[in-house]
Amino acid sequence: MTQPPRPTRLAQPTQPTQLPWPPERAEPTPPPELVQRAQPTPPLPPTEAPAGRERARPPQAPRPVRAPQAPPGGRLSPARPLRIAVVGGGPGGLYAAALLRRLTPGPEVTVWERNAPDDTFGFGVVLSDETLGGIEHADPAVYAALREDFVRWDDIDVVHRGRTLTSGGHGFAALGRRRLLRILHERCRALGVRLNFRTHAPPAAELARSYDLVIAADGVHSATRQDCADVFGTRLTTHRCRYIWLSADFAFDAFRFEVAETEHGVLQLHGYPYAPDASTVIVEAREEVWRRAGLDRLDERESTRRCAELFADALGGRPLRGNRSQWTAFRTVVNERWWHGNTVLLGDAAHTAHFSIGSGTKLAMEDAVALADHLASCLANHPAGHLADHRQDRSSVSEALAAYEAERRPAVESTQRAARASLEWFENLALYVDQPPRRFAFNLLTRSRRVTHDNLRLRDAAFVTAVEREAELPPDTPPMFTPFRLRGLTLRNRVVVSPMDMYSAQDGTPGDFHLVHLGARALGGAGLVMTEMVCVSPEGRITPGCTGLYADVHEGVWRRVVEFAHDASPGTALGVQLGHSGRKGSTRLMWEGMDDPLPRGNWPLAAPSPLPYRRGVSQVPQALDTAGLAAVREQFVAAARRAARAGFDLLELHCAHGYLLSSFLSPLTNHRTDAYGGTLAARLRYPLEVFDAVREVWPADSPMTVRISATDWAEGGTTADDAVAVAAAFAAHGADAVDVSTGQVVPDERPDFGRSYQTPYADRIRNELGVPVIAVGAISSWDDVNSLLLAGRVDLCALGRPHLYDPHWTLHAAAEQGYTGPGAPWPLPYRAGSRRPPTGRADGR
After folding, report:
1. 111 with 194: CB under 8 angstroms?
2. Which residue numbers delimit the FAD-binding domain (predicted)?
């Protein structure tokens, strides 16, 4: 039965009777707002909708905008003031105009907006504490007006199959988009900004000739950006879901996520209040679900009615309303550069971030603060902030624009990475709906990797404890210190020392370096310690310094390493990774020039196709014929037998990073026309033959894993869908887990680097196939490990560089979390160091 929402917990704002500022200084009366009337153009679809801020640390306010001062004892320069054109009258453009006009003495600022003053295509806007701190420093008057209208709340409700799970301590603030625009309109008028509504801006090239600075704040469909897309290096990505932006005439009492499981598939609702009597409601579904449900055939009125029916419980039976709302697919905008000459992109014109992580309004207003700050610095270098010489003008403006982009780009790219993770989580929502309810809620809250296990515990310890209890974690046991079983091997914890090439062998023979290196990591507490890629033949080495298992002497030395680890750190498992370099072999040691050919002493290379790794630089490999394929397969078998006799606990087949078996899998490196090339099934044939041959001689009770590159990060290469098919094939042939890496297959790849950036690929394989996965790639903290495990995205986490920085990373993680259980036992000789050493007191006592 439909239930009305529970009583609101919102703070009720007071409604100001007027905006809190008089004109700041005597100004000439600005020209009329509507200097040029034009027919309104059809509105564009909404490009973003706000969502909950995900905060991992206390907010830090940006620097205040600096107003340049006249030289001591000097007079104002008679030179003309700066002339600034702003294309687009959304919040970002308006706020930039107001901030720039506040510079002393103020530039001439003109804004063009093609729509009417009250036209807006969304409802509410969420701004974070960080953004509000920047606004307060940059313009206290705007902050004071916003503060009067904000509604605030702390909770997130996740509704999963009829159960509402609430997590508190998050902290949100929102207000209506129309109210925000009104505040900014009045602020611009008070400061003397020229506002032109229902008016198309002149072409950007024309503006650039007559103005010192042109700010393109004209949104995701920016005409300014499109006119110079090649200069800005624009990349547009349209995503898999359709969404519609609606409103309800009541206030949710929390940020609400709700899932509707229908005969057509899964749809989701994102809802939050933006006024005491109004909420934003966004309904979203994958494209195929949207079409199967017939939503693609409905107009705005029918779409609104249908969405209200789908989420009647969430709405308490109330209706929804639109505002020229239409279904659209979110588009991510990325630009290689944000400015050209004296024209700069701001807000959605420069970058977009999916509404499930943060609003474009938030990013645009932060852009405005940074741009005004750097332009103030530019003007401070000129007498009284005026510009006189045209060439000097443009040079100084260019310096300011370069500084603006340098400051903002890292923050924006970080937000876009988090937004990409979040939107992909919602695209794949159907993979998670069968999770237990609390795990599902935890997974949703940590989807972007910005909110973590430890951070969420700080916000709502009771919620995290309930999630851990549902997952049947032993009391006081972090997720990373729970055991995991692979075939006959039980790992004492979920931490893996990732394979890392050391380039320190002689003729394939490991030495004392490897004993100390791997022995130290075994003593450091990880559940599984992996060797570097161990090569199956002399010709299969990457460099002369790579280890092998192609000679009896190798077997004996590896046995010494394994026995030391087992004896010195009982419970540690040692794994060997077997591989063949393929076309990436016969190169220098990494620190001498990675992927550079040897200057002398080269050996012949083999690959599926005669394609060099770096055209014109690398050696051209020989395409393997039938005899060559059989010979390499037997080399893997012989190395596996030696690995078993050496006592390794686990064997991993290296089918990633562009080495031999990987280059069979990728269409970019496999151009064969025989049975081993063409379709994905054909490209899989040889790696599977090698896997089967190794599995046959590897002890039946010992696990085998396979490492794959889940994407080539290059057009025409392996895709995420391909990776699922590859993982499924290896699992069907007996792989006990898939080690999911990415890239390094072609030199012109474009990886999307970032914190734990490869884990979504592992997540999808695990939850789509039910196959255990090892996640790897920029996982650097124990908090990340706990978050990924408790959310059910991965089974094991492999860390490389953190274990180079700290061989005892796992034991130190246990000490920092106060864990002393069986998942991380300290070796007896080290037990005295199991507590963090005391540090000096600040008072010197």
Report:
1. yes
2. 212-401
Question: What is the residue-wise DSSP string for 560-625?
Answer: HHHHHHHHHSTT-EEEEEEE--GGG-SB--HHHHTTPBPSS-----EESSS--SSTTTSPPPEEP-
Angle at which helix 140-149 crosses helix 177-191, to 10 degrees, equals 150
Q: Which residue has the higher pLDDT, 77 or 531?
A: 531
- For the question of residue 659 being annotated catalytic, the response is yes
Q: CA 205, CA 7: separation in Å to the nearest integer?
A: 54
Q: Which helix (H) or strand (E) holds 346?
A: none
**420-449: pLDDT as tens digits:** 999 999 999 999 999 999 999 999 999 998
Closest CA to 37 of 145, 92, 116: 116
Sign, CA dihedral 467-471-476-480, equals negative
- The DSSP string of 8-36 is P-PPPPP--SS-S---SS--PPPPPS-SS
Could you give the CA distance from residue 656 to residue 743 in angstroms, rounded to a whole number? 8
Tell me which long-range contacts 634-637 makes (C-beta under 8 A, separation of at least 24).
Answer: 634/693, 635/536, 635/537, 635/540, 635/550, 635/580, 636/536, 636/578, 636/580, 636/690, 636/693, 636/694, 637/693, 637/694, 637/696, 637/697
Quote the pLDDT of residue 42: 32
Positive or negative CA dihedral for 398, 399, 404, 405? positive
* CA gap 253, 317 in Å, rounded: 16
Q: What's the confidence (pLDDT) of residue 753? A: 86
Q: CA 402, 405, 407, 410 torsion: positive or negative?
A: negative
- 3-class DSSP assignment, residue 79: coil
Two structure tokens written together for 731 = 């699992």
Q: Are 386 and 447 in contact (CB under 8 A)?
A: no
Closest CA to 610 of 675, 677, 656: 677
- Of the listed ranges 491-495, 808-812, 834-838, the one predicted with least confidence: 834-838
Could you give the maximum distance between any two Cα atoms of the chain, in Å? 91
Catalytic residue chosen out of the listed positions 659, 686, 757, 761: 659
With b for 16 or more beta-carbon neighbours within 10 A and e for fewer, the 106-121 pattern comes to bbbbbbbbbbebebbb
Residue 105 banded pLDDT, cuts 50, 70, 90: low
* 213 within 8 A of 342, measured Cβ to Cβ: yes
Region of residue 336 (phi > 0: left; psi between -120 and 50: alpha; otherwise: beta): alpha
Structural tokens at position 195: 């506002």
CA atoms of 824 and 91, how far apart (whole Å): 52
pLDDT at position 840 is 62
H or E segment to which residue 328 belongs: strand 328-335
**464: CB partners within 8 A, 6+ apart:** 442, 453, 456, 457
Angle, CA of 312, 296 and 316, to the nearest 5°:
5
The DSSP call for residue 838 is: P
DSSP 481: G
Q: Which amino acid is at 661?
A: L
Question: Before 105, cis peptide (omega within 30)?
Answer: yes
| Mean pLDDT, all residues of the chain | 88
